[in-house]
Design goal:
With 421 residues, the chain is mostly beta strands. Helix content is 13%, strand content 32%. The longest helix has 16 residues, at 405-420.
Length: 421
């Protein structure tokens, strides 16, 4: 275990992965109502229900049975539910981890391999209570809404900004934040910023304070206890959009929701979220899998709280590594990327990596421009970096807060003592 973070507990090196075709559960004992339905209720039905974002409903046995083989393949490959952290690399303790356990995966595989039996309907669980589609996953104290924007039925992608009043007259600190697209079909992404300059230009966010990022499949940002971002009094909110036409005219209004600390209360630490580890020029030749590396130096000691990979259609995998001042390294996380799911992986409090001043964050991005990659729209052409959906990107959204030298030394000693217990 490295001497700096001392946080990589429960790494998957200690996890034994069964062969994909082997299920340890007793096949004869596994039935839909007794064993599989509770898993679907907890991890699948929030999306897999009528008139929702998933392509099929899995609300009962009749709906689930035709998809049994596909379900098995997806869960064994750990493609569903959407939680794409590599279980064999780095930290494995996260908040709001939606992944299935190995036991649950084995149970689903055994159920399908035995013919997907229904079992006794008397074993069925009570129907799950599910949130409305598109509902907030936080309970915002403040909601700021963008002006109506008409996306034509047919047009090139549109990038542009709107600046609106926040309705906040005094400094407030944010506990949690979520961007909720008005129409998921046309909002490729939306970035939000706090605008403190009354003369800020409409299309230049360089002097703004970053608040939140939305992209397809993005969850809310819930900050660790005692941390928060400041929203200054009288600050306005900038919505920076990328809209995409879908063949019909759509009017979008997107909401930014915030959970706030009480008026006058300040958190112990100010949290930052930035695009770090930018890979620079991207060169992705046709028919090839490429690797690009980006680096950011952290000039103060700090504590990482979250990691969200960002690439586009060709994105395959992204890893976050720490390079310490003594040149030793530690791999924090690797994530198998899926453009349909932009997920923030928030580390559990006790597992959040800490690092000394001078540490470099190393973001390693892999793109797959081969015909074998199902997300590839055109494997015959070179692809480079850019803002369009068909261009590529390679960076990580990193959340962290700074520590003093004394705080870092104290936390390092505490983790060393815990490791020796």
């Amino acid at each position: 275990m490295k001497k700096y973070t001392l946080a990589l507990l429960g790494v998957a090196a200690a996890v034994v992965i069964a062969a994909p075709g082997v299920a340890s559960a007793q096949s004869d004992d596994v039935t839909f109502h007794k064993d599989i339905e509770p898993i679907l209720q907890r991890s699948c039905q929030v999306c897999h229900r009528p008139d929702n974002m998933a392509p099929m409903s899995l609300m009962n046995y009749q709906e689930t049975r035709p998809w049994a083989r596909s379900i098995r393949n997806k869960v064994v490959a750990r493609e569903m539910p959407p939680w794409h952290v590599d279980p064999n690399v780095g930290i494995q303790e996260f908040k709001d981890d939606r992944s299935l356990s190995k036991r649950e995966i084995d149970m689903i595989a055994a159920w399908v391999d035995n013919g997907a039996p229904r079992g006794n309907p008397a074993d069925a669980s009570a129907p799950a209570v599910l949130p409305d589609f598109g509902a907030w996953s936080i309970e915002p104290d403040l909601i700021v809404t963008s002006p109506p924007h008409t996306v034509p039925a047919e047009a090139g992608d549109w990038w542009g900004d709107y600046i609106v009043d926040s309705g906040i007259a005094e400094d407030r600190y944010i506990k949690a934040i979520q961007t909720k697209a008005g129409d998921l079909r046309v909002v490729h992404h939306a970035l939000t910023y706090a605008v403190t300059d009354p003369d800020a230009p409409i299309n230049d966010s360089s002097n703004d304070f970053f608040l939140n990022e939305y992209a397809v499949g993005k969850n809310a940002d819930v900050y660790p206890d005692g941390t928060g971002k400041v929203l200054e009094g009288d600050a306005r909110v900038r919505f920076s959009f990328h809209y995409h036409s879908i063949g019909e005219e759509v009017v979008d209004r997107t909401d930014l929701g915030m959970v706030l600390y009480p008026a006058g209360e300040e958190p112990e630490k100010v949290l930052y979220s930035r695009q770090l580890g930018q890979a620079g020029e991207l060169d992705i030749p046709a028919g090839q899998i490429t690797r690009h590396d980006g680096y950011t130096t952290m000039y103060l000691p700090g504590r990482l709280t979250g990691f969200q990979p960002h690439m586009h259609f060709l994105g395959k995998r992204q890893c976050l590594e720490l390079i310490y001042p003594d040149s030793s390294t530690e791999m924090v996380s690797c994530v198998n990327f899926d453009f349909n799911w932009h997920i923030v992986y928030n580390y559990a409090d006790d597992a959040q990596p800490i690092y000394p001043a001078g540490t470099k964050l190393h973001v390693i991005s892999y793109h797959d421009n081969t015909e074998a990659h199902r997300g590839n729209l055109d494997a015959l052409n070179w692809t480079g970096g850019g803002s369009r959906t068909i261009d590529e990107m390679a960076f990580g959204w990193i959340s962290w807060y700074d520590l003093s030298e004394e705080e870092y030394a104290t936390e390092l000693e505490s983790r060393a003592n815990n490791d020796n217990d």
